[in-house]
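Incident log, structure service

09:12 report received: a user says their structure output differs between two submissions of the same chain.
09:20 pulled the input from the user's history:
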Amino acid sequence: MSPRRNRPKDAGSSGRSPEEDASDRYGGWQSTESWGGEEWSVRHVAGASAQGKTYRCPGCDQLIPSGVPHVVAWPEHSGVDERRHWHKACWNAKDRRTSRVQRSRNAPRF
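09:34 re-ran on a clean worker, output below:
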């Protein structure tokens, strides 16, 4: 007599594509948006997957602290090498921002 199975045979596979699994791994969802005449891949990242990492937001030139939910965006034609981490509010306001970020006198230049 063979041992009893507690799970169906295919319980290990989720039935989703690797792209969907990758977006779930980072705690968010991925979409495509149009901006500046280009198509951009946009991934929403949960704060738990960003533990121990800090990033500089290109929208406001401020640090995104470890563990803070944010957005990762990159142009589709260039791939993930050009991805940038944005605050959610900065990404949503990207069309309303000026092209040049104004810094105070004492702000560090990176």
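09:41 both user submissions now match this output. Likely a transient worker issue. Closing.
09:42 reviewer note: Helices lie at 18-25, 88-92. The first helix runs from residue 18 to 25.
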